Amino acid sequence: MFGNDHPVEIEVGFGKGAFLVSSAVARPDTNFFGIEIERKYQLLTAGRLASRGLSHVRVCAADAKQWFSQLIPPQSVAVVHVYFPDPWWKRRHHKRRLFTLDFAQDCLKVLKLDGVLSIATDVAEYFVMMQETLAQISEFSVIPLDPTIPGSNVETNFERKARMIGTPINRARYRKTAEAPPRPASSPEVVAESEVVADSAD
């Protein structure tokens, strides 16, 4: 996809692309891949990337769960960013939440050894659930939040709005410390058609 051996970072649900674009501008030697379910945001972000000539970023409009479970090669990603996923407030809608045990295990699968999963949400209940889910995976270990790590201080558009009204932000980072044993094979699903958009330099 990128034609080089630079590290790859994935942002799930990049929205209007504030984090993705800012990170790509600051770190030209890192490849970025964004997955966003809303096509209008994918097109918006693709335009922002193209206008800046950022050749090391790709974005697609697709279901992240399907990409992680079926399309992203194992042990190929340095960092997975999951920031402010939809909390699906109503209890009967909780099953629609992105962050499930299956998704967390798929994050582990695609990460390289010593790769990092970085999460953030302004919903305390959802954050507790994410922590409890990750605690079930022994190959993930909590690591300290380090503001000196590249990209640590880059905010998403949603985070900026939350901070403006004083909403607390919950953050955590996890390192992959070992490979997980193979999971039982599941029935293949039909992957919805998605379009990966490159920058204007291609």
TrEMBL record:
Coiled-coil annotated residue ranges, if any: none
UniProt pathway annotation: tRNA modification; N(7)-methylguanine-tRNA biosynthesis
Biased segments, Low complexity type: 186-202
Gene Ontology annotations for the cellular component aspect, listed alphabetically: tRNA methyltransferase complex
GO function term, MF aspect, one: tRNA (guanine(46)-N7)-methyltransferase activity
Superkingdom of source: Bacteria
Function: Catalyzes the formation of N(7)-methylguanine at position 46 (m7G46) in tRNA.
Name the UniProt record assigns to this protein: tRNA (guanine-N(7)-)-methyltransferase
